[in-house]
Amino acid sequence: MRVLVVTAVEAESDSVAAGLAGHVASAPRTLASGHALTRLAVPGTPGTGTPPGVVDLVAGGVGPAAAAVAATGALAAAPDAYDLVVSTGIGGGFAPRAPLGTVVVSDRIVAADLGADTPGGFVAVEELGFGRSVHLPPPGLAERIAGALRGGGQRHVVAPALTVSTVTGTAARAAELIARHPRAASEAMEGFGVAEAAAAHGVPVVEVRAVSNAVGPRDRAAWRVAEALDALRGAFRLLGTTVFLEDL
Ligand SMILES: O=C(O)c1cccc(C(=O)CC[C@H]2O[C@@H](n3cnc4c(=O)[nH]cnc43)[C@H](O)[C@@H]2O)c1
Fold first, then answer.
1. Where is the Nucleoside phosphorylase domain (predicted)?
2. Which domains are assigned to the chain?
3. ipTM of the prediction greater than 0.90, yes or no
C-alpha cells in the first residue's frame, strides 16, 4: 500500500519513521509547496504474500490550514500515488476515554470549531449551509488499525478525532466540546485540514493521535510529549508490519 503520512512537526514524523522497522529512507525531496517529503520503503514479508509498502512523510506545520497545504503539496505532486492519507502526531485526550499515552484511531475526523457562535450556542458549518465539518475514514479501517494495535498491546481507542484551531485551555471549553461530541477521544489541530486535502484528491483518510496531555485547563507542565512520541513510534511499528502492507 502507498501511504502519505502528514504530521505537524519533524519530531512526530521522526517517531513515525522510527516505528517503521526495516524501512529504507530516501533523501528528502522538496515539494512545490516548499515542504520536505521523505519516502520510506517498507519491506513486505517474504513467503507470506505481504507486499512491500511505501510510506511518504511530510511535516506540514501546526494547524488545519498548514496541514491542508502540505497534504495538497504531496498529493498534487503525485496524482493517484496514494492509497491512504494519515494525519498523525500528538494530541490532547478527553478523559476518561483517552488517558496519557493512549493512541486514538479516528472513526470520524471533525472540525469542531468550524461554524458560528450564536446566542443559542455553536452552529456547525453544514447547518449554516456552507459545507462539511466531518470526514469519515473508509468503513472498517479504524477497526483494522485498532486490531493491529491490540495485537501489539498498545493502549488505543477508536473514536472521533476533533480538529480545532485553538487549543482548549479551560474545563468549560472541554465540557462544551464533549457535550457536542460525546464519543470524542482526541483534540488536535491538523486532522481536518489533511482530510479536506485527501477528499479533494479522492484518497481515503484516517487520523491517528498519541495522547500527550489532557484536554482541559491549560497546564503545560503536565504535558508528556516524549511519552506520546514513544507511543506514536510503537503504533507505527505495529502498523508498518500489518495494516500499511495490506490493500485497503
Ligand atoms: O498552550 C501552550 O502554551 C502551548 C505551547 C506550545 C504548543 C502548544 C500546542 O498546543 C501545540 C499544538 C500541536 O500539538 C498538537 N496538540 C497536542 N495536544 C493538543 C491539544 O490538547 N489540543 C490541540 N492540539 C494539540 C496539535 O495537533 C499541534 O500540532 C501549546
1. 57-227
2. 2-245 (3.40.50.1580)
3. yes
